[in-house]
Amino acid sequence: MDGKALLNTGGVNAFPEIAEMKPVNKPSNDSSSAPLAACTAGPIRVTYRDTDRMGYAYHSQYLVWFEIGRTDLLRGLGTTYRDWEEKEGVYLPVRRADIQYKMPANYDDLIIIHTSMIRLTKASVTFEYRIHREGSQELLAEGSTIHAFVDKEGRVIRAAHRLLPRFF
Amino acid sequence: MNTTCLTSTAPLASCIAGPVRVLYCDTDRMGFVYYSKYLIYFEIGRTTLLRQLGSTYRDWEDTEGVFLPVRDCQVQYFAPATYDDAILIETSITRLTRASITIHYRIFKQGEAQLLAEGSTTHAFVDEAGRIVRVADRLLPQLF
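Output (structure tokens, whole complex):
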């Protein structure tokens, strides 16, 4: 896994404070692309309010599904993002989001969100997402989000090793 | 100019849409605009740009039978927009072929130079059945 390449997909690294952090979790002999953690969230029903006049889920809705995916992933790791905010004072604002749309999701579809945590430093985390219709292997969309760990004032903090010690 | 693919570092067309006021329903519990909302600002930007080019996306759908589904998008977030901010959406067409269009967006608070977010969307030109159609030169002849 080449975390630096992921951060640099836009050609410009807008967040040097994240990129300069070394991926501390990466075993030196691990050349696999296996995610650090993964989960499957859903099924979630596409509701009428999600759809636009093309009849499909509007493209911003996928970012909401991505949020469902990553909060479920954290829950599966025995923690919750709510607790991070309320008890730890740690926030995960999105620094960058990318989505590729392959096929539309339709009203009343049941969708599944496959979420992987693919990169973790002490101060940033990257998730990848794949959206399918339930019972189908056809990919509807895929994407990623990069988040910083910040405190209530928005200052970048190195907190991931405390919140997710198993990866460090 | 009559080429099948136009790319340039200078935008083919651009506009500034807004100001758009950040509503309470746009904010999340951090007090900031939720990250998916920027894709809606981007839509405001691109439809405003088409309108300034003398066209409307509604007419493309209703009169021409042409649709512009989003194929991919990316957003980078630099600073949050907050409740009641007036934001501007600087929108540029950066690439246009007969069958696809790429649009770049930069979001500012009105009267401030700081960039809040930037991103891009790429769209295909398709017909009602979702088939790719090469019509951009007919719909936007001034850019070809």
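Chain A has five helices and five strands.
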